[in-house]
Design a protein that fits this description.
- This protein is mostly helical.
- The chain has two domains: about 55 residues, no CATH class; about 110 residues, no CATH class.
- Helices cover about 65% and strands about 5% of the residues.
- It contains twelve helices and two strands; from the N terminus they run αααααααααβααβα.
- The chain starts with 19 loop residues before the first helix and ends with a helix.
Length: about 210
């Protein structure tokens, strides 16, 4: 799908003060953000606006990134808390633009925030972001299973499941993810019923109707 030409006329000076390279980068970021939002909306919505999953390289870039993380874990012999640390560190880098924006509102720079925070404090900060907590539970669990390769479908799961696990009362997903989310105590943290069999859903709904 081709996006319309990126229009900067809404800016005070019509974008005249921005170098051409910045125009290009802004257009790329906006296009990728919209495409990611459409992926979150689901396959039907994604296709309805002219996209096909097979035409997107987000999933492959995700796999490539996680494979890089996996190699770093192996090369440095990371285990236990070391894996948890690198998972959260890479995720903090991923959400850095949003963190920078929030810090600006309280008069801090990203560099100041990192400098005045200890590693345990940064870990707590990441875990206090609900959907990022679930994302990192899923990522760290997958990285611990070194025999399992990262697949493009993992991108869709890790994009969609955290929102559901935090904000839905009941989540039905495949067995491996339900197990990993329970291991990370996601069900306890967010009072979410995690199921891996639709047959169990009936009884859960019956029990809910009786309370």
């Amino acid at each position: 799908m081709s996006w319309p030409t990126f229009d900067l006329r809404a800016l005070p000076d019509g974008g005249a003060s921005l170098p051409n390279g910045v125009w290009t980068e802004l257009g790329r970021v906006v296009a990728e953000s919209i495409e990611e939002d459409l992926l979150r909306a689901g396959p039907a919505t994604f296709r309805s606006v002219g996209f096909e999953h097979t035409a997107s390289d987000h999933a492959q870039r995700f796999v490539d990134f996680e494979n890089t993380v996996a190699r770093t874990i192996v090369q440095n012999g990371l285990r236990g808390d070391g894996i948890e640390l690198i998972i959260r560190a890479t995720d903090l880098t991923d959400i850095r633009p949003a963190v920078v924006e929030a810090l600006e509102r309280i008069g801090l720079t990203y560099e100041q925030f990192v400098r005045i925070s200890s590693i345990p404090e940064l870990m707590v900060f990441m875990d206090d972001l609900p959907t990022r907590y679930v994302t990192n539970v899923m990522r760290s669990a997958k990285h611990r299973q070194k025999q399992q390769k990262w697949e493009p479908n993992d991108f869709i799961d890790i994009l969609a499941l955290p929102v559901a696990a935090v904000y839905c009362d009941i989540v039905v997903t495949e067995k491996q993810w339900a197990h990993r989310l329970r291991q990370g105590k996601v069900n306890q943290r967010y009072s979410t019923v995690l199921l891996n069999d639709t047959a169990d859903l009936v009884q859960v709904l019956v029990n809910a109707s009786m309370t």
